[in-house]
Structure formats: structure tokens, C-alpha cells
Design brief:
By secondary structure, the protein is mainly alpha-helical. Helices cover 77% and strands 7% of the residues. The longest helix is centred in the middle third of the chain and has 28 residues.
Length: 207
């Protein structure tokens, strides 16, 4: 009996500890609700991809659910969380001649967000894209080309937001060039390769 009670007390202590840590993290966020939804749809899409076959054997059902979650995430990040958490916004407008004009705004000077808000936003934006990229490599090695269509959709939506928000940032060019310079130095690349890598990154992000 005493052993059972001891185990029960330990479980309650662990639960209170987890809840306490979660409360501490939430307390450090200026925008906890946007931060929650910034991560929610990404996590659900990845979990559906990984464990969807446990619930349904239909590829079509899993594909549709994942695409819907990815679409919800794209809209949320593009229209809500970027503006609230980091003060950035991007969108497109159709001109009279039928061409598309891309616009980028940054209102970071009077931003009422903590460093935790900013960190959650950027990590939540980049890490899921890396996860989908790894999924893509795994599907390619397994020759699962049907799943590659879903992964390509996830990567396209993820990189659309990543590139849009990188182009919004005022100091994006300096930060990217500095990071690339450090990477080139550590990798021991020569100057020509370093310049080529920096130029390719600048062209990709349009900065």
C-alpha cells in the first residue's frame, strides 16, 4: 500500500512539475494564444503524417487531412502570427496589367513582444520545414513517390512563409550574410566558394 501511494505521489509531483514549467513558458510569452496556434497546425500535420496509418489505411484520407492542416497553418502564420509576434507582414496584389506585386512590411520598432515570442515564431517557422525535408529524403530512399506529393506541398507552403518573412526583416541580409560567412569559415571553404554560396542564398531569398 505504501509503495503504491509513493508511486502516486511521484506521478502527481511530476505532473505538477510539468504544469509548472508550461506555466513558466507561457508567462514569458506576450502572445501565448498566437504562439499556440503558430505551432498547433504544424504539429498536427506532422503527427498525422507519422501516425495517420494507425487510424486510417486510406492514403487519400491522410493526404486530405494533412493538406487541410497545412493550409490552416499557412493562413495562420501569414495573416496572424507573423504580424502579432514579430511585427512582419507580406502579401501580394494584382496590378491593373495583370501582374502580381509582392509587398513586405516590417513594424519591429514598437513591437510589444518578448524574445521568447520571437524565438518561438522563427523556430516554429523553420524547424517543421527541416522535418518535412527529412521526411522527403526518407520517402525518396523508400521510393514512396505518392507521399512525396504531400511532402512537396508541405515544403512549398513552409518555404513560401519563410522566404516572405525573411524578405520582410530589415536586417535579414546582414544576418544571413554573417551566418553564411561563419559557416564558410568553419567549413574551410575558399573565398570563391564562399562568395558563390552567399550569392546563391541572396538570390533565393531576394535580398
Amino acid at each position: 500500500m505504501s509503495t503504491t501511494m509513493q508511486f502516486g505521489d511521484e506521478e502527481q509531483t511530476d505532473t505538477r512539475g510539468l504544469l509548472g514549467r508550461a506555466s513558466d513558458i507561457a508567462a514569458g510569452l506576450k502572445h501565448p494564444v498566437p504562439a499556440f496556434f503558430h505551432l498547433l497546425f504544424k504539429v498536427l500535420a506532422i503527427m498525422t503524417y507519422m501516425f495517420g496509418t494507425w487510424v486510417s489505411s486510406s492514403f487519400v484520407n491522410i493526404f486530405v487531412v494533412c493538406v487541410l492542416l497545412l493550409a490552416f497553418d499557412f493562413w495562420t502564420v501569414k495573416n496572424v502570427t507573423g504580424r502579432l509576434m514579430v511585427g512582419l507582414r507580406w502579401w501580394s496584389e494584382v496590378r491593373d496589367d495583370g501582374s502580381t506585386e509582392w509587398k513586405f512590411e516590417a513594424h519591429e520598432d514598437g513591437l510589444q513582444s518578448t524574445t521568447l515570442d520571437v524565438g518561438v515564431f522563427w523556430l516554429g517557422l523553420i524547424l517543421p520545414a527541416l522535418v518535412w525535408f527529412l521526411f522527403g529524403l526518407g520517402s525518396l530512399f523508400r521510393l514512396s513517390f505518392d507521399w512525396l506529393l504531400l511532402i512537396a506541398t508541405a515544403l512549398a507552403l513552409s518555404f513560401a512563409n519563410i522566404i516572405g518573412y525573411v524578405r520582410c526583416k530589415k536586417d535579414a541580409k546582414n544576418k544571413i550574410n554573417s551566418s553564411l560567412a561563419n559557416m564558410v569559415t568553419r567549413a574551410g571553404m575558399n573565398n570563391a566558394m564562399g562568395r558563390a554560396l552567399t550569392s546563391a542564398a541572396g538570390s533565393a531569398f531576394g535580398i
